[in-house]
Specification:
- The longest helix has 38 residues.
- The mean pLDDT is 94.
- 75% of the residues lie in helices and 0% in strands.
- The protein has 456 residues and is an all-alpha fold.
- The two termini are 14 Å apart.
- The chain contains 16 helices and no strands.
Length: 456
Protein backbone atom coordinates (compact mmCIF):
# COMPACT_ATOMS: atom_id res chain seq x y z
CA UNK A 1 0.00 0.00 0.00
CA UNK A 2 1.16 3.53 -0.74
CA UNK A 3 -0.80 5.03 2.17
CA UNK A 4 -1.44 3.59 5.62
CA UNK A 5 -5.08 4.74 5.71
CA UNK A 6 -5.95 2.54 2.72
CA UNK A 7 -6.09 -0.31 5.24
CA UNK A 8 -9.55 0.85 6.35
CA UNK A 9 -10.85 -0.86 3.20
CA UNK A 10 -10.12 -4.29 4.70
CA UNK A 11 -13.02 -4.51 7.20
CA UNK A 12 -15.39 -3.26 4.49
CA UNK A 13 -14.25 -6.04 2.16
CA UNK A 14 -14.53 -8.69 4.90
CA UNK A 15 -17.98 -7.46 5.94
CA UNK A 16 -19.11 -7.45 2.31
CA UNK A 17 -18.01 -11.05 1.78
CA UNK A 18 -19.78 -12.21 4.96
CA UNK A 19 -23.02 -10.63 3.72
CA UNK A 20 -22.39 -12.21 0.29
CA UNK A 21 -22.43 -15.64 1.92
CA UNK A 22 -25.67 -14.78 3.73
CA UNK A 23 -27.22 -13.60 0.46
CA UNK A 24 -26.41 -16.86 -1.31
CA UNK A 25 -27.67 -19.02 1.59
CA UNK A 26 -31.02 -17.25 1.60
CA UNK A 27 -31.12 -17.50 -2.20
CA UNK A 28 -30.85 -21.28 -1.85
CA UNK A 29 -33.63 -21.27 0.74
CA UNK A 30 -35.82 -19.35 -1.71
CA UNK A 31 -34.92 -21.76 -4.49
CA UNK A 32 -36.16 -24.71 -2.42
CA UNK A 33 -39.32 -22.84 -1.49
CA UNK A 34 -40.15 -22.53 -5.20
CA UNK A 35 -40.52 -26.33 -5.34
CA UNK A 36 -41.23 -27.11 -1.67
CA UNK A 37 -43.62 -24.37 -0.68
CA UNK A 38 -43.65 -25.16 3.04
CA UNK A 39 -39.84 -25.44 3.41
CA UNK A 40 -38.87 -23.73 6.72
CA UNK A 41 -42.40 -22.32 7.04
CA UNK A 42 -43.46 -20.57 9.24
CA UNK A 43 -39.98 -19.82 10.59
CA UNK A 44 -38.66 -18.28 7.34
CA UNK A 45 -41.56 -17.50 4.97
CA UNK A 46 -40.77 -16.89 1.29
CA UNK A 47 -41.30 -13.13 1.52
CA UNK A 48 -38.81 -12.91 4.41
CA UNK A 49 -36.20 -15.04 2.64
CA UNK A 50 -36.60 -12.84 -0.43
CA UNK A 51 -36.17 -9.64 1.59
CA UNK A 52 -32.97 -10.95 3.19
CA UNK A 53 -31.66 -12.22 -0.16
CA UNK A 54 -32.18 -8.95 -2.04
CA UNK A 55 -31.35 -6.59 0.85
CA UNK A 56 -28.14 -8.46 1.64
CA UNK A 57 -27.16 -8.10 -2.03
CA UNK A 58 -27.69 -4.33 -1.96
CA UNK A 59 -25.94 -3.80 1.37
CA UNK A 60 -22.89 -5.92 0.62
CA UNK A 61 -22.40 -4.26 -2.76
CA UNK A 62 -22.64 -0.83 -1.11
CA UNK A 63 -20.13 -1.99 1.49
CA UNK A 64 -17.88 -3.24 -1.33
CA UNK A 65 -18.15 0.11 -3.14
CA UNK A 66 -17.19 1.89 0.08
CA UNK A 67 -14.20 -0.35 0.64
CA UNK A 68 -13.08 0.08 -2.96
CA UNK A 69 -13.38 3.86 -2.63
CA UNK A 70 -11.41 3.96 0.61
CA UNK A 71 -8.60 2.05 -1.10
CA UNK A 72 -8.76 3.80 -4.47
CA UNK A 73 -9.22 7.48 -3.57
CA UNK A 74 -6.15 7.96 -1.33
CA UNK A 75 -3.92 6.37 -3.96
CA UNK A 76 -5.39 8.48 -6.75
CA UNK A 77 -5.36 11.65 -4.60
CA UNK A 78 -1.80 10.89 -3.43
CA UNK A 79 -2.61 11.61 0.20
CA UNK A 80 -3.91 9.87 3.30
CA UNK A 81 -7.64 9.45 3.81
CA UNK A 82 -9.19 12.53 5.44
CA UNK A 83 -10.44 10.63 8.51
CA UNK A 84 -9.67 6.90 8.93
CA UNK A 85 -11.39 6.91 12.35
CA UNK A 86 -14.65 8.16 10.79
CA UNK A 87 -14.40 5.40 8.14
CA UNK A 88 -14.01 2.68 10.78
CA UNK A 89 -16.81 4.08 12.92
CA UNK A 90 -19.19 4.18 9.95
CA UNK A 91 -18.29 0.59 9.05
CA UNK A 92 -19.40 -0.70 12.43
CA UNK A 93 -22.55 1.41 12.43
CA UNK A 94 -23.42 0.15 8.93
CA UNK A 95 -22.68 -3.49 9.81
CA UNK A 96 -24.66 -3.42 13.06
CA UNK A 97 -27.60 -1.67 11.36
CA UNK A 98 -27.60 -4.27 8.57
CA UNK A 99 -27.42 -7.12 11.08
CA UNK A 100 -30.25 -5.74 13.22
CA UNK A 101 -32.39 -5.20 10.13
CA UNK A 102 -31.92 -8.82 9.03
CA UNK A 103 -32.75 -10.03 12.55
CA UNK A 104 -35.86 -7.85 12.45
CA UNK A 105 -36.94 -9.47 9.18
CA UNK A 106 -36.40 -12.95 10.63
CA UNK A 107 -37.79 -12.52 14.14
CA UNK A 108 -40.65 -10.02 13.87
CA UNK A 109 -43.67 -10.02 11.52
CA UNK A 110 -43.13 -7.32 8.90
CA UNK A 111 -46.23 -5.34 9.95
CA UNK A 112 -45.01 -5.34 13.55
CA UNK A 113 -41.52 -4.32 12.43
CA UNK A 114 -43.04 -1.37 10.57
CA UNK A 115 -44.96 -0.32 13.66
CA UNK A 116 -42.06 -0.48 16.12
CA UNK A 117 -39.60 1.30 13.82
CA UNK A 118 -41.66 4.43 13.23
CA UNK A 119 -43.05 3.73 9.78
CA UNK A 120 -46.31 5.45 10.78
CA UNK A 121 -44.43 8.72 11.23
CA UNK A 122 -42.65 8.53 7.86
CA UNK A 123 -44.03 5.69 5.71
CA UNK A 124 -41.30 4.20 3.51
CA UNK A 125 -41.65 0.43 3.95
CA UNK A 126 -43.37 -2.27 1.93
CA UNK A 127 -41.78 -1.67 -1.47
CA UNK A 128 -39.63 -4.21 -3.29
CA UNK A 129 -35.88 -3.79 -2.62
CA UNK A 130 -36.70 -0.88 -0.28
CA UNK A 131 -38.24 -2.96 2.50
CA UNK A 132 -35.76 -1.57 5.07
CA UNK A 133 -37.40 0.05 8.12
CA UNK A 134 -37.53 3.84 8.00
CA UNK A 135 -34.99 4.08 10.81
CA UNK A 136 -32.59 1.88 8.82
CA UNK A 137 -33.01 4.07 5.75
CA UNK A 138 -32.18 7.14 7.84
CA UNK A 139 -29.12 5.29 9.14
CA UNK A 140 -28.06 4.48 5.58
CA UNK A 141 -28.31 8.19 4.71
CA UNK A 142 -26.16 9.14 7.73
CA UNK A 143 -23.54 6.52 6.85
CA UNK A 144 -23.57 7.54 3.18
CA UNK A 145 -23.17 11.25 3.96
CA UNK A 146 -20.31 10.55 6.39
CA UNK A 147 -18.65 8.34 3.78
CA UNK A 148 -19.09 10.94 1.03
CA UNK A 149 -17.74 13.69 3.28
CA UNK A 150 -14.65 11.58 4.02
CA UNK A 151 -14.04 10.66 0.39
CA UNK A 152 -14.83 14.13 -0.97
CA UNK A 153 -12.47 15.88 1.44
CA UNK A 154 -9.71 13.45 0.49
CA UNK A 155 -10.43 14.17 -3.18
CA UNK A 156 -10.53 17.96 -2.76
CA UNK A 157 -7.29 18.13 -0.79
CA UNK A 158 -5.32 15.89 -3.18
CA UNK A 159 -4.67 15.16 -6.83
CA UNK A 160 -7.74 15.13 -9.05
CA UNK A 161 -7.96 12.39 -11.68
CA UNK A 162 -10.64 11.32 -14.12
CA UNK A 163 -11.09 8.08 -12.21
CA UNK A 164 -11.83 9.74 -8.88
CA UNK A 165 -14.00 12.40 -10.57
CA UNK A 166 -16.19 9.74 -12.22
CA UNK A 167 -16.25 7.70 -9.01
CA UNK A 168 -17.38 10.69 -6.93
CA UNK A 169 -20.12 11.56 -9.44
CA UNK A 170 -21.35 7.97 -9.24
CA UNK A 171 -21.22 7.86 -5.43
CA UNK A 172 -22.98 11.19 -4.98
CA UNK A 173 -25.56 10.14 -7.56
CA UNK A 174 -26.13 6.91 -5.63
CA UNK A 175 -26.79 8.85 -2.42
CA UNK A 176 -29.06 11.42 -4.08
CA UNK A 177 -31.14 8.79 -5.89
CA UNK A 178 -31.60 6.87 -2.62
CA UNK A 179 -33.43 9.87 -1.17
CA UNK A 180 -36.37 8.99 -3.44
CA UNK A 181 -36.88 5.91 -1.24
CA UNK A 182 -38.43 8.36 1.24
CA UNK A 183 -40.93 9.55 -1.40
CA UNK A 184 -44.01 7.40 -0.91
CA UNK A 185 -47.03 8.87 -2.80
CA UNK A 186 -50.51 7.47 -2.23
CA UNK A 187 -50.98 7.29 -6.01
CA UNK A 188 -49.63 3.91 -7.18
CA UNK A 189 -48.50 5.22 -10.58
CA UNK A 190 -46.47 8.04 -9.03
CA UNK A 191 -45.13 5.63 -6.44
CA UNK A 192 -43.78 3.27 -9.10
CA UNK A 193 -42.53 6.22 -11.16
CA UNK A 194 -40.29 7.49 -8.36
CA UNK A 195 -39.45 3.99 -7.11
CA UNK A 196 -37.69 3.30 -10.40
CA UNK A 197 -35.62 6.46 -9.89
CA UNK A 198 -33.94 4.58 -7.07
CA UNK A 199 -33.80 1.08 -8.51
CA UNK A 200 -33.13 1.76 -12.21
CA UNK A 201 -31.01 4.89 -11.90
CA UNK A 202 -28.84 3.01 -9.43
CA UNK A 203 -28.15 -0.18 -11.35
CA UNK A 204 -28.40 1.23 -14.89
CA UNK A 205 -27.10 4.71 -14.13
CA UNK A 206 -24.79 5.85 -11.35
CA UNK A 207 -23.62 2.36 -10.35
CA UNK A 208 -22.21 1.95 -13.84
CA UNK A 209 -20.03 5.02 -13.24
CA UNK A 210 -18.72 3.37 -10.07
CA UNK A 211 -18.17 0.14 -12.02
CA UNK A 212 -16.26 1.94 -14.79
CA UNK A 213 -14.00 3.88 -12.43
CA UNK A 214 -13.10 0.84 -10.29
CA UNK A 215 -12.38 -1.24 -13.39
CA UNK A 216 -10.26 1.56 -14.88
CA UNK A 217 -8.22 1.85 -11.66
CA UNK A 218 -7.49 -1.87 -11.49
CA UNK A 219 -6.61 -2.03 -15.20
CA UNK A 220 -4.12 0.82 -14.83
CA UNK A 221 -2.44 -1.05 -11.99
CA UNK A 222 -2.30 -4.51 -13.54
CA UNK A 223 -1.53 -3.57 -17.17
CA UNK A 224 0.73 -0.52 -16.95
CA UNK A 225 -1.12 1.03 -19.91
CA UNK A 226 -0.93 4.84 -20.03
CA UNK A 227 -3.51 6.53 -17.83
CA UNK A 228 -4.52 8.83 -20.71
CA UNK A 229 -5.59 5.87 -22.85
CA UNK A 230 -7.66 4.28 -20.11
CA UNK A 231 -9.27 7.60 -19.14
CA UNK A 232 -10.41 8.23 -22.74
CA UNK A 233 -12.15 4.85 -22.73
CA UNK A 234 -13.71 5.69 -19.37
CA UNK A 235 -15.19 8.95 -20.66
CA UNK A 236 -16.70 7.18 -23.69
CA UNK A 237 -18.24 4.49 -21.48
CA UNK A 238 -19.80 6.86 -18.94
CA UNK A 239 -21.19 9.10 -21.70
CA UNK A 240 -22.88 6.11 -23.34
CA UNK A 241 -24.10 4.95 -19.92
CA UNK A 242 -25.76 8.23 -19.01
CA UNK A 243 -27.25 8.90 -22.46
CA UNK A 244 -28.85 5.46 -22.69
CA UNK A 245 -29.48 4.72 -19.02
CA UNK A 246 -31.31 7.85 -17.91
CA UNK A 247 -33.96 7.89 -20.64
CA UNK A 248 -33.84 4.09 -20.70
CA UNK A 249 -35.65 4.24 -17.35
CA UNK A 250 -38.72 4.36 -19.59
CA UNK A 251 -38.64 0.60 -20.14
CA UNK A 252 -40.03 0.34 -16.61
CA UNK A 253 -42.87 2.74 -17.41
CA UNK A 254 -44.52 0.56 -20.08
CA UNK A 255 -47.36 -0.85 -17.97
CA UNK A 256 -47.64 1.25 -14.80
CA UNK A 257 -50.15 3.83 -16.03
CA UNK A 258 -47.75 6.36 -17.57
CA UNK A 259 -48.34 7.95 -21.02
CA UNK A 260 -47.94 5.74 -24.09
CA UNK A 261 -44.94 7.69 -25.43
CA UNK A 262 -42.80 5.99 -22.78
CA UNK A 263 -43.13 2.76 -24.77
CA UNK A 264 -41.21 4.44 -27.60
CA UNK A 265 -38.67 6.24 -25.41
CA UNK A 266 -38.15 3.20 -23.21
CA UNK A 267 -37.79 0.81 -26.15
CA UNK A 268 -35.38 2.94 -28.19
CA UNK A 269 -33.02 4.08 -25.44
CA UNK A 270 -32.98 0.86 -23.44
CA UNK A 271 -32.21 -1.02 -26.67
CA UNK A 272 -29.03 1.09 -26.77
CA UNK A 273 -28.04 0.20 -23.20
CA UNK A 274 -25.96 -2.87 -24.23
CA UNK A 275 -23.57 -0.52 -26.07
CA UNK A 276 -21.72 0.81 -22.98
CA UNK A 277 -21.40 -2.73 -21.63
CA UNK A 278 -19.99 -3.93 -24.94
CA UNK A 279 -17.59 -0.97 -24.85
CA UNK A 280 -16.58 -2.03 -21.34
CA UNK A 281 -15.78 -5.54 -22.58
CA UNK A 282 -13.66 -4.18 -25.42
CA UNK A 283 -12.03 -1.81 -22.95
CA UNK A 284 -10.97 -4.57 -20.55
CA UNK A 285 -9.60 -6.92 -23.22
CA UNK A 286 -7.91 -4.11 -25.15
CA UNK A 287 -6.10 -2.86 -22.06
CA UNK A 288 -4.95 -6.35 -21.06
CA UNK A 289 -3.73 -7.02 -24.62
CA UNK A 290 -1.78 -3.75 -24.58
CA UNK A 291 -0.26 -4.38 -21.16
CA UNK A 292 3.30 -3.30 -20.64
CA UNK A 293 4.07 -5.76 -17.87
CA UNK A 294 2.95 -9.10 -16.51
CA UNK A 295 1.38 -8.38 -13.15
CA UNK A 296 1.85 -11.23 -10.66
CA UNK A 297 -1.83 -11.06 -9.66
CA UNK A 298 -3.28 -13.19 -12.46
CA UNK A 299 -6.50 -13.77 -10.51
CA UNK A 300 -7.32 -10.04 -10.45
CA UNK A 301 -6.77 -9.89 -14.21
CA UNK A 302 -9.17 -12.79 -14.69
CA UNK A 303 -11.83 -11.10 -12.56
CA UNK A 304 -11.40 -7.84 -14.50
CA UNK A 305 -11.87 -9.57 -17.86
CA UNK A 306 -14.78 -11.60 -16.49
CA UNK A 307 -16.50 -8.42 -15.33
CA UNK A 308 -16.61 -7.02 -18.86
CA UNK A 309 -17.86 -10.23 -20.46
CA UNK A 310 -20.49 -11.16 -17.87
CA UNK A 311 -21.75 -7.58 -17.53
CA UNK A 312 -22.28 -7.43 -21.28
CA UNK A 313 -24.08 -10.79 -21.35
CA UNK A 314 -26.22 -10.23 -18.26
CA UNK A 315 -27.01 -6.53 -18.41
CA UNK A 316 -26.63 -6.13 -22.17
CA UNK A 317 -27.78 -9.24 -24.03
CA UNK A 318 -30.29 -10.56 -21.48
CA UNK A 319 -31.55 -7.05 -20.85
CA UNK A 320 -32.12 -6.49 -24.56
CA UNK A 321 -34.01 -9.80 -24.89
CA UNK A 322 -37.09 -8.39 -23.18
CA UNK A 323 -36.65 -4.63 -23.23
CA UNK A 324 -38.73 -3.74 -26.32
CA UNK A 325 -42.32 -2.90 -25.43
CA UNK A 326 -43.98 -5.41 -27.82
CA UNK A 327 -41.87 -8.21 -26.30
CA UNK A 328 -42.04 -6.95 -22.73
CA UNK A 329 -45.84 -6.96 -22.98
CA UNK A 330 -45.60 -10.76 -22.68
CA UNK A 331 -42.41 -11.20 -20.63
CA UNK A 332 -42.56 -8.61 -17.83
CA UNK A 333 -42.67 -10.11 -14.37
CA UNK A 334 -41.68 -13.59 -15.58
CA UNK A 335 -38.62 -15.70 -14.88
CA UNK A 336 -36.96 -14.04 -17.88
CA UNK A 337 -36.70 -10.93 -15.71
CA UNK A 338 -35.15 -13.02 -12.92
CA UNK A 339 -32.64 -14.51 -15.39
CA UNK A 340 -31.58 -11.04 -16.51
CA UNK A 341 -31.34 -9.77 -12.94
CA UNK A 342 -29.16 -12.62 -11.70
CA UNK A 343 -26.54 -12.45 -14.45
CA UNK A 344 -26.57 -8.64 -14.65
CA UNK A 345 -25.95 -8.14 -10.93
CA UNK A 346 -23.30 -10.85 -10.83
CA UNK A 347 -21.50 -9.69 -13.97
CA UNK A 348 -21.61 -5.96 -13.47
CA UNK A 349 -21.35 -5.42 -9.72
CA UNK A 350 -20.50 -8.60 -7.83
CA UNK A 351 -17.55 -9.27 -10.11
CA UNK A 352 -16.17 -5.72 -10.07
CA UNK A 353 -16.22 -5.65 -6.26
CA UNK A 354 -14.41 -9.00 -6.20
CA UNK A 355 -11.97 -7.64 -8.81
CA UNK A 356 -11.06 -4.84 -6.42
CA UNK A 357 -10.84 -7.20 -3.46
CA UNK A 358 -8.66 -9.57 -5.47
CA UNK A 359 -6.28 -6.74 -6.39
CA UNK A 360 -6.22 -4.82 -3.10
CA UNK A 361 -6.42 -7.49 -0.40
CA UNK A 362 -2.95 -8.99 -1.07
CA UNK A 363 -1.46 -5.47 -1.01
CA UNK A 364 -3.12 -4.77 2.32
CA UNK A 365 -1.56 -7.99 3.59
CA UNK A 366 1.93 -6.89 2.52
CA UNK A 367 2.38 -8.67 -0.80
CA UNK A 368 2.04 -7.83 -4.50
CA UNK A 369 -0.09 -10.91 -5.06
CA UNK A 370 -1.08 -14.11 -3.31
CA UNK A 371 0.85 -17.33 -3.77
CA UNK A 372 0.38 -19.35 -6.93
CA UNK A 373 -1.55 -22.00 -5.01
CA UNK A 374 -3.89 -19.37 -3.55
CA UNK A 375 -4.45 -17.81 -6.97
CA UNK A 376 -5.21 -21.19 -8.54
CA UNK A 377 -7.79 -21.78 -5.81
CA UNK A 378 -9.25 -18.29 -6.37
CA UNK A 379 -9.50 -18.89 -10.12
CA UNK A 380 -11.28 -22.20 -9.46
CA UNK A 381 -13.75 -20.18 -7.41
CA UNK A 382 -14.11 -17.75 -10.32
CA UNK A 383 -14.93 -20.48 -12.83
CA UNK A 384 -17.29 -22.40 -10.53
CA UNK A 385 -19.29 -19.28 -9.66
CA UNK A 386 -19.30 -17.89 -13.19
CA UNK A 387 -20.27 -21.13 -14.95
CA UNK A 388 -22.91 -21.78 -12.29
CA UNK A 389 -24.35 -18.30 -12.85
CA UNK A 390 -24.47 -18.89 -16.62
CA UNK A 391 -26.52 -22.06 -16.07
CA UNK A 392 -28.74 -20.40 -13.45
CA UNK A 393 -29.49 -17.77 -16.09
CA UNK A 394 -30.13 -20.34 -18.81
CA UNK A 395 -32.47 -22.42 -16.62
CA UNK A 396 -34.41 -19.33 -15.53
CA UNK A 397 -34.62 -18.20 -19.17
CA UNK A 398 -36.04 -21.57 -20.20
CA UNK A 399 -38.51 -21.39 -17.31
CA UNK A 400 -39.48 -17.86 -18.38
CA UNK A 401 -40.09 -18.82 -22.00
CA UNK A 402 -42.29 -21.74 -20.95
CA UNK A 403 -44.07 -19.49 -18.45
CA UNK A 404 -44.85 -16.90 -21.13
CA UNK A 405 -46.25 -19.60 -23.40
CA UNK A 406 -48.37 -21.40 -20.83
CA UNK A 407 -49.60 -18.37 -18.91
CA UNK A 408 -49.87 -15.57 -21.48
CA UNK A 409 -49.83 -16.87 -25.07
CA UNK A 410 -51.57 -20.27 -25.12
CA UNK A 411 -55.12 -20.57 -26.46
CA UNK A 412 -56.22 -21.58 -22.97
CA UNK A 413 -53.77 -19.82 -20.60
CA UNK A 414 -53.04 -21.54 -17.32
CA UNK A 415 -53.25 -19.87 -13.93
CA UNK A 416 -50.08 -18.57 -12.28
CA UNK A 417 -49.78 -21.40 -9.75
CA UNK A 418 -50.62 -24.11 -12.29
CA UNK A 419 -47.91 -22.69 -14.54
CA UNK A 420 -45.40 -22.72 -11.67
CA UNK A 421 -45.97 -26.45 -11.24
CA UNK A 422 -44.96 -26.97 -14.87
CA UNK A 423 -41.67 -25.13 -14.27
CA UNK A 424 -40.51 -27.27 -11.34
CA UNK A 425 -37.83 -29.11 -13.37
CA UNK A 426 -36.11 -25.82 -14.21
CA UNK A 427 -36.40 -24.70 -10.58
CA UNK A 428 -34.70 -27.89 -9.40
CA UNK A 429 -31.92 -27.41 -11.96
CA UNK A 430 -31.56 -23.78 -10.83
CA UNK A 431 -31.25 -24.97 -7.22
CA UNK A 432 -28.55 -27.48 -8.18
CA UNK A 433 -26.51 -24.83 -9.97
CA UNK A 434 -27.08 -22.53 -6.98
CA UNK A 435 -25.39 -25.14 -4.78
CA UNK A 436 -22.47 -25.24 -7.22
CA UNK A 437 -22.29 -21.43 -7.01
CA UNK A 438 -22.08 -21.70 -3.21
CA UNK A 439 -19.28 -24.27 -3.55
CA UNK A 440 -17.45 -21.83 -5.84
CA UNK A 441 -17.88 -19.07 -3.26
CA UNK A 442 -16.49 -21.30 -0.51
CA UNK A 443 -13.51 -22.19 -2.73
CA UNK A 444 -12.94 -18.49 -3.41
CA UNK A 445 -13.05 -17.67 0.32
CA UNK A 446 -10.68 -20.58 1.04
CA UNK A 447 -8.08 -18.94 -1.19
CA UNK A 448 -7.66 -16.22 1.46
CA UNK A 449 -6.34 -18.84 3.88
CA UNK A 450 -4.08 -20.68 1.45
CA UNK A 451 -0.46 -20.34 2.55
CA UNK A 452 2.84 -20.88 0.72
CA UNK A 453 5.18 -18.17 -0.50
CA UNK A 454 3.47 -15.07 -1.87
CA UNK A 455 4.17 -13.79 -5.37
CA UNK A 456 6.60 -10.87 -5.56
Amino acid sequence: MQFKSQAVAKPYFIGALVLFVAQILFGLIMGLQYVMGDFLFPHIPFNVARMVHTNALIVWLLMGFMGASYYLVPEEAERELYSPKLAIAMFWIFLVAAGLTVLGYLMVPYATLAKITGNDLLPTMGREFLEQPTITKIGIVVVALSFLFNISMTFLKGRKTSITTVLLIGLWGLAIMFLFSFVNPDNLVRDKFYWWWVVHLWVEGVWELILGSILAFVLIKITGVDREVIEKWLYVIITLTLVTGIIGTGHHYFWIGTPEYWQWFGSVFSALEPIPFFAMTLFAFNMVNRRRREHPNRAATLWALGTGVMAFLGAGVWGFLHTLAPVNYYTHGTQITAAHGHMAFYGAYVMVVITMISYAMPLMRGRAANSNAAQVLEMWGFWLMTIAMVFITLFLTAAGILQVWLQRVAVQPMSFMATQDQLSLFYWLRELTGVIFLIGLVVYLASFFKGEKAAQ
